[in-house]
Write a structure and sequence with these properties.
This protein is an all-alpha fold. It has a single domain, classed as Sodium/glucose cotransporter. It is built from 19 helices and no strands. Helix 1 runs parallel beside helix 13, helix 3 runs parallel beside helix 11 and helix 13 crosses helix 14. The radius of gyration is 22 Å and the shape is globular. The termini are far apart.
Length: 490
């Protein structure tokens, strides 16, 4: 079977691609309106929403970047997992019920719709849509390039194919099921990916334990002997650096539009209370893959059983290609594509909503006619633009990547999380906080500003936007909220 390892992996990936096409065709029948396209008609069950939120959180980063961080910095990366786990109750308890009720009362189909309803301000909705669009382009370009690179690597043993061709193949498949099924296709691919990866995470963890003599104890002893700081409670990043992750990941998940938009899709308002434990349990299990691969590859390199890795991100592919059973490797690689594609699909959806629904509504007071058609056209245009950037403008990918998790968190947490739980927040404070978050995060990440104590740039931007939001709201005239909005929020 080892002789056919690459073939088995490609077969698993091909089977997943075929499944995406089937899901797209199935979802096409269920997508009859803009509400279906953007929020699945607010008709999804508890389990589907739970796994969709989980999958959107993990994405490709959890399967590639996560093990890479453990390989590079040891225990520091575990704090990211802890912080994200804590973030689920924060997001669900502060947002889920309020967003779902407000969406039903005001007919909201996007995050900016919720913000416009809260502040009675088109400007706040427009700026939120702008922040989302900027972040979406960066995320899309980075993920499309990652997906094309992985596909090129898998095909290298069979054919000499260019990165552009791999990007075209990947994006074409994405566009097909995004355009046909919208968010419905996205959440059901999330569901399949999540279930597969929860099972695969357990199997990968067991495979990792058997790859090193002495199992987990042997790994930690080997790594600690080389660098005791790596296996210390705070790892190589230090206490303040890890605590800054708590700030940006613990609070920041509640500001990720591709995650919290799913709170508007529940069939019933009370479903959120049942979704939370399922999501937290699934994430905890998936984290086993994140932790185990990084530790085992670091130990194998130190023991001389594997050559040094050029970058930490090679940890997961190297482990799967050399130490995991071929079928398991194929399933996880398929899950990797699923993670990237489901996240890209969600971003394409909220990006199309920003362009077709939110910005026109903020400027004219209403969305365009034939909104579903324009949403599908916008999805294609955004995908093509992001693919072009990913393939031809590598430097721009890095710049746009600055508008990532940190920018979403800094722009949306003050305006939405605080705003839906604090009556005093004003429209002016919301607009200033959003603009400041974009400017601060972009400046910190592109000007290579040296931040002391290894603090995360996104955490600094979030602190700045929160400070401005509270300060301006306190000195401004108290807002007058609509009766229905006030009854839901407070």
């Amino acid at each position: 079977m080892e002789a056919y390892r690459t073939t088995i992996i490609l077969a698993c990936v091909g089977a997943y691609f075929l499944l995406c096409i089937v899901i797209g065709i199935w979802a096409l029948r269920r997508t009859k309106s803009a509400s279906d396209f953007f929020v699945a008609g607010r008709n999804l069950g508890v389990f589907v929403i739970s796994i969709a939120v989980l999958s959107s959180t993990m994405s490709g980063f959890g399967f590639v970047g996560g093990p890479g961080l453990v390989y590079s910095m040891g225990m520091s990366s575990l704090w990211m997992i802890v912080c994200t786990t804590v973030s689920y109750p924060i997001a669900f308890l502060l947002l889920a019920k309020r967003m779902r009720m407000l969406a039903e009362l005001r007919g909201a189909v996007s995050l900016p719709d919720i913000i416009v309803a809260r502040y009675n301000s088109r400007a706040s909705g427009f700026l939120t849509a702008l922040a989302i669009l900027l972040g979406v382009i960066g995320y899309l370009a980075a993920n499309i390039r990652a997906m094309a690179t992985v596909l090129q690597t898998l095909l290298a043993d069979h054919t000499d194919i260019s990165l552009l061709a791999c990007a075209v193949i990947s994006t074409s498949l994405l566009v097909f099921y995004c355009v046909t099924g919208g968010i419905i296709a996205s959440v059901y691919t999330d569901l399949i990916q999540g279930v597969i990866m929860v099972v695969a995470a357990v199997l990968v963890f067991l495979a990792a334990l058997s790859a090193v003599d002495g199992g987990l104890a042997g790994m930690t002893a080997t790594i600690a002997a080389d660098d005791p700081g790596t296996m210390s409670p705070w790892g190589t990043k230090g206490i303040l650096g890890c605590l800054s992750w708590f700030f940006i990941f613990g609070l920041g998940m509640a500001g990720q539009p591709h995650i919290i938009t799913k709170f508007m899709m529940n069939k019933r308002v009370e479903d959120a209370r049942w979704s939370l434990p399922v999501t937290m349990f699934g994430y905890a299990v998936m984290a086993m893959l994140w932790i185990s691969i990084g530790l085992v590859m670091r130990a194998l390199v130190l023991q001389g059983q594997h050559e040094s890795l050029a970058t930490g991100d090679q940890a997961a592919p190297e482990f799967l290609q050399n130490y995991a059973h071929p079928v398991l490797a194929g399933v996880v690689f398929a899950g990797l594509f699923a993670a990237i594609m489901s996240t890209v699909d969600a971003f394409l959806n909220i990006g199309a909503a920003a362009v077709v629904h939110d910005m026109p509504k903020a400027l004219t007071g209403h969305p365009p006619t034939r909104e579903l058609l324009w949403a599908r056209i916008a999805t294609v245009v955004i995908a093509v633009l992001a693919t072009g950037i990913a393939v031809f403008l590598k430097d721009l990918v890095a710049i746009l990547g600055a508008f990532g998790w940190g920018t979403f968190a800094a722009a949306i947490v003050p305006v939405l999380v605080v705003g839906l739980n604090w009556q005093r927040g004003t429209a002016l404070a919301a607009c200033v906080a959003i603009l400041a978050s974009i400017a601060i995060n972009f400046w910190l990440k592109t000007a290579a500003v040296a931040i002391p104590f290894s603090l995360d740039p996104g955490a600094v931007a979030l602190l700045g936007s929160l400070t401005l939001y509270f300060a301006i709201s306190i000195v401004s005239k108290p807002p007058k909220l609509a009766a229905d909005v006030k009854s839901v929020l407070f």
